Amino acid sequence: MSGRDAIPPSPSEADYAREADAPEDIFTREDPVALFGEWLAEARKREPNDPNAMALATADADGAPDVRMVLLKDVDARGFTFYTNTESAKGLQLGANARAGLCFHWKSLRRQVRVRGPVSEVSAHEADAYFASRARDSRIGAWASKQSRPLESRFALEKAVAAHAAKFHVGAIPRPPFWTGYRVAPLRIEFWRDRAFRLHDRMVFERDREDTPWRIMRLYP
Description:
The protein has 221 residues and is an alpha+beta fold. It has six helices and ten strands. Strands 1, 2, 3, 4, 5, 6, 7, 8, 9 and 10 form a ten-stranded antiparallel sheet that branches. Helix 5 packs across helix 6 (154-168). It starts with 12 loop residues before the first helix and ends with a strand.
């Protein structure tokens, strides 16, 4: 079977009829963060794994793009927060080009949210608090992993984990100096909802700066 043969065919009219619904009118909303919170809450009920998973797109100093899946760990009026090793590929790219795009795709809900904006590091207090909330083995792993760099063998990683476990023993595990959180401050948020015959709903919230009002528009599908 070729890769093309594995791609599902486009839905038929009967398929669309079976999947038709009467969704709520999202175009009356004025607060995109509140709307995102409602959609995320629904995703938590429906998505089998990681409803807070999001594609994170970054670019290096030359503008070459990169994308990977990460987990959203906080969201409020200030933005969307995730945590990582600052010396990882994404950490280095954000250090060179502090802007990012996010994409949430909830297949079970047939919904998608895209976010774009500047990125800044969270405060040391926020990073410390989140790091302390992680499982102990995850905290040890953060110290042991030279994220995104070449690894000679799985045994080398396990050896590094064992060494740090012995180092910290039963004591406190501080946050590594190379590990923190990043917050994407949204300047544009687009909500996408599947509708029959590819006539999808698209609603965009956009603003010039973090302290200016949102402009709201509907887009052609």
